[in-house]
Amino acid sequence: MFSEFDLDKRLLKAVDKLGFEKPTPVQTAAIPPALAHKDLLVSSETGSGKTAAFLLPTLHQMLAKAAPETGSRMLILLPTRELARQVMKHFKQLAAFTHLKFALICGGETFKFQRAMFRKNPEVIIATPGRLLEHIEHGTPDFEALEFLILDEADRMLDMGLSEDVLKIVSCCNVDRQTLLFSATLNHRGLSKMMAGMLREPEAIRLNSVRDRHQNIRQQIIVADDSLHKGRLTDWLLSNETFDKAMIFTNTRIQADKLGSYLRSRGQRMGVLHGDLEQDERNRIMQLLRQGIINVLVATDVAARGIDVKGVDLVINFDMARSGKEHVHRIGRTGRAGEEGLAICLISPQEWNLMSSVGRYLRIDFEQRTVESQLGKYKGPHKVKASGKAAGTKKTKEKKKEKVVKAKQRHRDKKNIGKRRKPTVQIEDKPTPSGFKPLMKKK
Ligand code: AMP
Predict the structure, then answer these.
(1) In angstroms, what is the span from residue 53 Cα to ligand 1's centroid?
(2) Whether the CB of 334 sits within 6 Å of ligand 1
(3) Same domain for 86 and 228?
(4) Is the minimum distance from the CB of 20 to ligand 1 under 6 angstroms?
(5) Are 146 and 6 in the same domain?
(6) Could you say which DSSP state residue 405 is in?
(7) Which of 165, 229, 343, 363 could link 331 by a cystine bridge, Cβ 3.0 to 4.6 Å?
């Protein structure tokens, strides 16, 4: 129960309005130490409820203490615009019954307008590093009285080469702040370097690792000959699966556009999201998806990072993700906050090995599925190397035994070349010298 956290009534009212019945594991683990003003280092996936895990305790502390006259009180840094917009949306919901104001500072929107927003002294700044740094270089924001610094999806900021920008921004922030860092993994190579001097005796909360299974997501593979065949399979799945919203991942922008045109021609209600699109267009597509005007989104990984759309219950990996980590990010779009989800990977001959290694790394038992009306030539690799359990099956053991017996027989035959064979036993009906008849009967 959220009431056990002893949060400000206005926040509890908002939580109630959102219909959150009980805290998620990351909220249970992070809210109490964050309320105790500790620095935190939290490993937690997108979709785990981590936004509320950092917003609730920090907003509570802001409400408990009188606000300074000027300057921002909280800075939330995120790797992408979509993620920033999502956090903004969650902030609006959770702070709905408070006076707290915010400013969203990310690329793709007017610089002048953003500068004007800073003049209104919003308590909370939600920003992506690049654009915020531009404002800092123009001397606009004032983080000298900053009380809370949140770094969300820190591992992705590193992967996207944003660590320098982050470090520059952090160096402008009040040193007596509380810092909360969230990352899908705490084992990221660059993380400790980025963190050095940023957090004070942080408490590490490890909720899950990238290898943890998403128990509520069924994971299937369907083999395909090539991208044309994959296109037909995708269209079939969208037309035959029952789903609320679907996300389809491609590895390249060109493929996203190609697939988008094909699916549109097949009458699917869909949109394409990739990095080449203008911000306005990206916002428009996300809006259409949220409103349910379209129910399918074809996206590349970068464009889809962190976006949280309610009701995504089908993920199709048109191209197999290039790494286990990326696969987890993709399937994390579905099965959010405990809901059921289905993730299907379309696997071409070139992708079989990649799929196997991702499966081994994440310990996923992909369920192989076939679509009878859309069968292709490719059925999977000819010889699947026996490993683990498969190596010890009854059939393989029997075959091995048979081989050994045959080899021994060949060896004996070689040794006996030229030797006289023993006469074969004659079975007669005559009594033996001992007076007994042999037990075997003549054929
Ligand atoms: P996040 O990991 O912050 O992106 O959250 C993922 C989704 O879970 C968001 O749509 C939240 O609104 C939702 N959520 C967060 N906390 C809870 C909760 N305690 N109960 C149910 N849903 C939640």
Answers:
(1) 9
(2) no
(3) no
(4) yes
(5) yes
(6) H
(7) 343
Whether 185 and 64 map to the same domain: the answer is yes
CATH number at residue 365: 3.40.50.300
Are 225 and 363 found together in one domain? yes
Overall pTM > 0.70: no
Q: In angstroms, rounded to a whole number, what is the distance separating the alpha carbons of residues 352 and 100?
A: 51
Interacting residues of 396 by C-beta distance below 8 A, sequence separation 6+? 386, 390
Ligand 1 and 336: CB distance under 6 A: yes
Q: Cβ(23) to ligand 1 under 6 A? A: yes
Q: Which ligand 1 atom sits closest to the C-alpha of 90? A: 12
Q: Would you put residue 201 in left (φ > 0), alpha (ψ -120 to 50) or beta? A: left
Q: Report residue 148 as tokens.
A: 């809370």
Q: Tell me whether residue 200 is in a domain.
A: yes
Pocket test for ligand 1, best of 17, 88, 308, 329 (most atoms within 8 A of CB): 308
Q: Is 51 in the pocket of ligand 1 (CB under 6 A)?
A: yes
Residue 25 is assigned to a structural domain of this protein: yes
Quick one: 131 and 221 in the same domain? no
Instruction: Identify whether the C-beta of residue 149 lies closer than 8 Å to the C-beta of residue 180.
Output: yes
Under 8 Å CB-to-CB from 404, ≥6 apart: which residues? none
Residue nearest to ligand 1 atom 11, measured at CA: 49
Reported as type and span, the H/E element at residue 324 is: helix 324-331
- Of 368, 370, 354, 346, which Cα lies nearest the Cα of 229? 346
pLDDT tens digit at each of 443 positions of the chain:
898 898 999 999 999 999 999 999 899 999 999 999 999 999 887 778 999 999 999 999 999 987 766 779 999 999 989 899 999 999 999 999 999 999 999 988 889 999 999 888 899 999 999 999 999 999 888 898 999 999 999 988 888 888 899 999 999 999 999 999 998 777 777 788 778 789 998 998 987 655 555 667 889 999 999 999 999 999 999 999 999 999 999 999 999 999 999 999 999 999 999 878 788 888 899 899 989 999 999 999 877 776 767 788 899 999 999 988 889 888 877 766 656 789 999 999 999 999 999 998 887 889 999 999 999 999 988 755 444 444 455 566 677 777 777 877 777 777 676 666 554 444 444 444 444 444 444 43
- Expressed as residue numbers, the domain containing 355 is 217-374
Atom from ligand 1 closest to the CA of residue 45: 2
Q: Are residues 188 and 233 in the same domain?
A: no
Last residue of a domain, one of 172, 206, 240: 206
CA of 49 to the centre of ligand 1 (A): 4
CA 161 / ligand 1 centre spacing (Å):
28
Domain count, the chain: 2
Rounded to the nearest whole angstrom, what is the distance from the C-alpha of residue 342 to the centroid of ligand 1? 19
Q: Which residue has its alpha carbon closest to ligand 1 atom 20? A: 20
Q: Pick from 154, 153, 180, 188: which is nearest to 306 by CA?
A: 153
Residue 379 counted as domain residue: no
Asked if residue 111 has its Cβ within 6 Å of ligand 1, the reply is: no
112 CA → ligand 1 middle, Å: 33
Residues 54 and 98 in one domain: yes
Q: Is there a domain that residue 384 lies in?
A: no
Specify the amino acid at residue 156. Answer: R
Domain check: are 127 and 253 in the same one? Answer: no
